[in-house]
Design brief:
Chain lengths: ~325, ~325, ~325, ~325, ~325, ~325
Amino acid sequence: MTGLVTFGETMLRLSPPRGQRLSRVDGFDVHVGGAESNVAVAAANLGVDSAWCSALPDTALGERVVHALRGEGVEPLVTWTDTGRVGTYYLERGGRPRGQTVVYDRGETPVRELAPDDLPLARVRDADRCFVSGITPALSDQLAETTARLLETAADAGVATALDVNYRSKLWTTDAARETLTGLFPHVDALFVAERDARSVLDCEGDAEAVAAGLADDYGFETVVVTRGEAGALAVHDAVHEQAAFETDTVDPVGSGDAFVGGYLAHRLDGGTVPDALAYGAATAALKRTMEGDMARVIPDEVAALVADGEDGGIDR
Amino acid sequence: MTGLVTFGETMLRLSPPRGQRLSRVDGFDVHVGGAESNVAVAAANLGVDSAWCSALPDTALGERVVHALRGEGVEPLVTWTDTGRVGTYYLERGGRPRGQTVVYDRGETPVRELAPDDLPLARVRDADRCFVSGITPALSDQLAETTARLLETAADAGVATALDVNYRSKLWTTDAARETLTGLFPHVDALFVAERDARSVLDCEGDAEAVAAGLADDYGFETVVVTRGEAGALAVHDAVHEQAAFETDTVDPVGSGDAFVGGYLAHRLDGGTVPDALAYGAATAALKRTMEGDMARVIPDEVAALVADGEDGGIDR
Amino acid sequence: MTGLVTFGETMLRLSPPRGQRLSRVDGFDVHVGGAESNVAVAAANLGVDSAWCSALPDTALGERVVHALRGEGVEPLVTWTDTGRVGTYYLERGGRPRGQTVVYDRGETPVRELAPDDLPLARVRDADRCFVSGITPALSDQLAETTARLLETAADAGVATALDVNYRSKLWTTDAARETLTGLFPHVDALFVAERDARSVLDCEGDAEAVAAGLADDYGFETVVVTRGEAGALAVHDAVHEQAAFETDTVDPVGSGDAFVGGYLAHRLDGGTVPDALAYGAATAALKRTMEGDMARVIPDEVAALVADGEDGGIDR
Amino acid sequence: MTGLVTFGETMLRLSPPRGQRLSRVDGFDVHVGGAESNVAVAAANLGVDSAWCSALPDTALGERVVHALRGEGVEPLVTWTDTGRVGTYYLERGGRPRGQTVVYDRGETPVRELAPDDLPLARVRDADRCFVSGITPALSDQLAETTARLLETAADAGVATALDVNYRSKLWTTDAARETLTGLFPHVDALFVAERDARSVLDCEGDAEAVAAGLADDYGFETVVVTRGEAGALAVHDAVHEQAAFETDTVDPVGSGDAFVGGYLAHRLDGGTVPDALAYGAATAALKRTMEGDMARVIPDEVAALVADGEDGGIDR
Amino acid sequence: MTGLVTFGETMLRLSPPRGQRLSRVDGFDVHVGGAESNVAVAAANLGVDSAWCSALPDTALGERVVHALRGEGVEPLVTWTDTGRVGTYYLERGGRPRGQTVVYDRGETPVRELAPDDLPLARVRDADRCFVSGITPALSDQLAETTARLLETAADAGVATALDVNYRSKLWTTDAARETLTGLFPHVDALFVAERDARSVLDCEGDAEAVAAGLADDYGFETVVVTRGEAGALAVHDAVHEQAAFETDTVDPVGSGDAFVGGYLAHRLDGGTVPDALAYGAATAALKRTMEGDMARVIPDEVAALVADGEDGGIDR
Amino acid sequence: MTGLVTFGETMLRLSPPRGQRLSRVDGFDVHVGGAESNVAVAAANLGVDSAWCSALPDTALGERVVHALRGEGVEPLVTWTDTGRVGTYYLERGGRPRGQTVVYDRGETPVRELAPDDLPLARVRDADRCFVSGITPALSDQLAETTARLLETAADAGVATALDVNYRSKLWTTDAARETLTGLFPHVDALFVAERDARSVLDCEGDAEAVAAGLADDYGFETVVVTRGEAGALAVHDAVHEQAAFETDTVDPVGSGDAFVGGYLAHRLDGGTVPDALAYGAATAALKRTMEGDMARVIPDEVAALVADGEDGGIDR
């Protein structure tokens, strides 16, 4: 039985060395990333039997993506296609006063064509938890429909479902996102949403607690987790639970939100409480920020130690 | 006045280090290449005032292409667009028993939409020579039409024109290529064609001399240059001229055909004879093979010395 | 059901850049290699469901080994230990007139302690083929015994078994190797042996065919494959089958023998004949030599094409 | 017509990786830098038609310098010589408690011999703005004279002139600098000076405003800009204008002063007011600090956005 | 005559690039480090004639260690062995919230077998100062005995002796350390101890001054230096002397404690007072933190300038 | 007592990665090389107590040179100066049809000013062998005189002397070289000369044996070694001795001539015969070609094995 099944697009990430601009780039580091595979990777590294569904062209670059996920212990459930390309995104690392610049080149990817029947729904029904981010339904009308069917199938089979809003302004408008995502909410048990997205996409008001409570009330979620960057996270699940963020010396912030979700879900799947899972999420996200690439290659013991003892930073010898 | 104007698509080339597979790639070297810009670069490095026409999206990656060409002394005549992407191609370097593997990812590039009126035709009319490869008309029906108008415009203005057949089986069939290219031939003064392409695309028969003579007769070219890889090249221009290839320790073969054309055209524009231009072409191509990247960053003196003295390989101190 | 199960030690390989000596080394490339995991990797890349049994310390470096194999699609069946270290070997690449220099640092590795009952024997009994090299029994008396029990268990369960002699003079004497290995032979169906090892370890005489035939006769092997480096390979299996080696531009020769075995076994498991399997082995080995690292990251289509068409070396575009 | 013409020496900059000392260096990153070409590069990237005058030996290294500037869109107006060398400077990056260490190796460079008649004075007369730093006249007596003639020629032709004091203690004494530079002041419209240099070289006293006002009064400058590092900049131009510095995560501070001047001049040439130009200068300098190398490879939109909105630091997607 | 002789184990340090985990490592930077050789290197770079005693296997990796120390001007006094291996340690660089992770792989090293008579005791007797850290006696019972004999020999010959407690929990318990180290104290003139180790290993109580004074009283040390990380250091030598730590932009903290000792001892050997030597120690340690690797490749002038003027951080040109 | 003392200039060598041109270089590998220090390095690696005399500026780059030689076990006998620079040379690696390109930047180096009294003549008198190449007297008139005095001093003290003609056309004419070098010959015991230099500089005629015999006769050398590249070497010393060159897979040919001399001299100093020393020279030169950099970091055992057994090229495990 699979602990966690996720569904979404995964891309090659091409980033120049720090301090080099895309407009002058001489070399790219290659990483593999996508919200849903990132969540699966974090969970797999924390001991959860994880799988990721998607489509890829049957090329060396498609194989590159699968190679990365297999290496992390995530089972790839891939529909291989003869056409289409592997999506890429270019990441120029910055620092104040400019931030990270992301240039997406994700057109013509085969995942956009996946219909519900293309998914391994038997595997989904057999899982403990099913996760998808708001990016997947944003990619095409087909995927909006497929995502809805996926969540419905899982919910009908008694599989706990989770959705991370993860709004991307380069993919759709806030209006389109609201319409599509709220249509998915009836099949979602746990909602993750950045406070900023809750306001701009879901029209929430009030402080973070009010946002979480309002969403839980309005849509009947079992759990709502509002993430607030350096201000930590807050969950409404029966009661209100707050979690501070850990201070980090950040090497690469990309993927830390996905690491949070992966750490949270892994601990929940392992039987942990919501407040403990929030701590696992925060710790996994913090550790992710010290690593290059989108993936949280964490070790269960170090996450547990960070949760237990707080930050370190010294030399252990 | 511009010596040479070329027109075509230029891409980012992404290649893993030698010995690393695309399916496992951790890092890419970034080069900039395209048949027509490669020809312009070779000519510019040999002292010809060169320009390259194309379209690019107005992004950091579009700027990356222009930066590379400006750095080589080629004037970019670019139509900047708000949509589309920069084409890329992935090059896995091999060695016997596998060769170089090229994976094109050149969809949705803005050059495909360029109409004749988008081109700087005044600059074309004011040039000494206009060059295009058979790749350009293969990219879209629009470009087939635009290429025809470009060559016609140049020819009408008395600008010498050159075409390199450069057949790409991943872009079109031999039948489609033959139909389109032979439609361009009436406006072409000098034709470059690999012996293999002459047979498969243009249905030529006989030995290389027969091929060249036949093409010259059939289509009325002033010059036909048949390239034959390690077997050298042969031209029919009034008389028949043969040129051996130089032996090389090859670091990177990509772009050596373009370097041949660039070296040939540069020497012709400098007033050289056809046989001397063949030697310049062969020398430029040989030197290109000792350099990473698609571009022939040659020095006029070293090309001249190689033409005069043949190969060296020692240490000059 | 698993297609292929292998059993042995896998190490980190640390190699300086070409042209740099170990005695002056500033940086190491890290690869993962071991004869039995290399065989499993080649087979897995050719589509065989492959697993590898071993023991590793439960450290970041042990995880490094497992990460590499998982990434190649090999299932690691690992006994994790609290003590011991990950073996390493240092490879200084040379060229004439010095060769590759290998410095082993493989002491105190936990695989040496593995008893038969530590192995997943149920998985072995359920496999199609079981493979081990002569390195495994050379590592410790315990492993000599465990290897014997492994092969016996497989044979008793009707699983086809294969052994590659792979003599390592740094691990044992030819006398010790002969005594131990011949004790394993009764449980072995297919023997792979370098012609040189056949002479020095197994006291064979005559030409390669005589060697193979003699071994088949003396020990009752179903198949004997004698490998001869650039001279190709020869098998006795009912009849005599010869296979030439492909010419290669070698980037890294390490692991090509294992690639041969993996390619051979994969094609046999896929239902191929012995002569065809020899061709697959030779092609897989040749392709391996064009890649950095011990692993044959081949693509089934390119191996099949090489078998069908022989070497290429051009650019496919 | 050229927007900006600058005149000075440009060198190769050789820097070890961060954390490596020059006394143990194994590899150098190569950049190209010089105060006047840096100013031209910043302006060119901001859309100004820019040129740079200098002399270089006709070698591969001289070509390296020209290649870099052409790539940035700066027109090199170079006197090529048969003798002399390309200046180099070695930069060891530090961090507290040691700073950046610069070792100049700029002897025997041909720019030192340039007489006024060697300069393309017609191009200078035809420009909108002429810029030189105090480094140029420090390099040789000949250059002190040539610089004077250059500024005089520009001023006589109605070209606005600018000078950045840029005192280098390794090139001359404060007394020598004062004598030479004040001799140039009558032909200078806009003076840039670090507050520290104003005190040590130009004997200014009082706070930054007093310094600027005093210089404007004493020498009749139209504009005096006093730069104060992290404390920002202050200009006296009719009125007093203050500009804060942006906070930065600095990757490479070298060249940020030149970026300030380039950003300022570009915005003035674009018709901006002095206070707006100060903001452009500060923004260009801040962005430069996030990039490796001496050159401010900025994008007009990002500079404008930084001026408008202040610092960011997030991820834009 | 030798100024400083040290005795201990030196290893290869293998560290992935920052941001990469050991469990996913693709490449290692190679450095050479060991507490006692680090001290010798710092002292040698500050002008002290320094030697280091140890044992190494006669392999390319043993030669690698010696090469590094010779290059720093330290004389290696090495017993070469036919067996054993070079110790390695793996360093994963972290940042908050995880620290540096050190994985030792130092088993089977020949230094563990060194008996007193294997040491060049005549050279020790002829030195000005003899230094050892608490790591050396922790490595084996033999080394505990050899270290005792070394210090006794030095003390008997009137050579000043120094010991840095340098407790390593991965090598021994605090009880074992206390018993062995206090047995060495009668032959030690100057003791260096981290405040944390003084409490956990030596059962000291009270503030740093009380710790230092108590140790001096209890064991009769001429000098006790208590190091306190960012809080600086405190010495009791006749009087009490305090020294603040310098603020640093840390590139690599490993080895800064050894650099402190080396800087202190070098200045004492040069005739400096204890408070001045503390300042030299703090400055050497601070500079070390700005360099990659375990070694303090400092320049005497920069240490003196830092002691005299405090931190800088600007650009000197 | 020192076995070998050499005297000459040593430079930093800056080379781009293979396939990159100096005119486009982005990064340099840094090596340290000079004919006389290369000879000392080869000899030191073969066990000879070696020293090298020169002058260097007291800068980080001067220290870089000394660091490299100390690391190889060569004792630097350096006159440190307050002025001048470290010479550099730029090496662009090529392959057919272009060779290696060397750009020297060796002006203003302090070694040019060294007078005989600046040399450690007592050390020279105390050595077994004194070596200098023809480059040293070519650098300045002062050095021509100093070299003469050095050789005379050595010869008068009974120290065996050796000179390698090593003609550099970029430093002097053949006429100037002949005049100066023949003036040194009376103090030289062993002459090394490339056959090509013997003809162009020393006006020799006939085959290699005639050249060697003629030089021995004309100038009374005890030994004349004529080197002939791939054709090997020939010595006249009492009798005529011929030595073939080993076949190599060349990584870097620079410095192989110096390695030949160093290997020869080391074996002679070790008591070997002239024919054996020729074999050691050829083996050391061949091994050098498999390493990056100017220095022959050979191991005595591998040189001896190559001399004994001839080339290998396999994997030793």
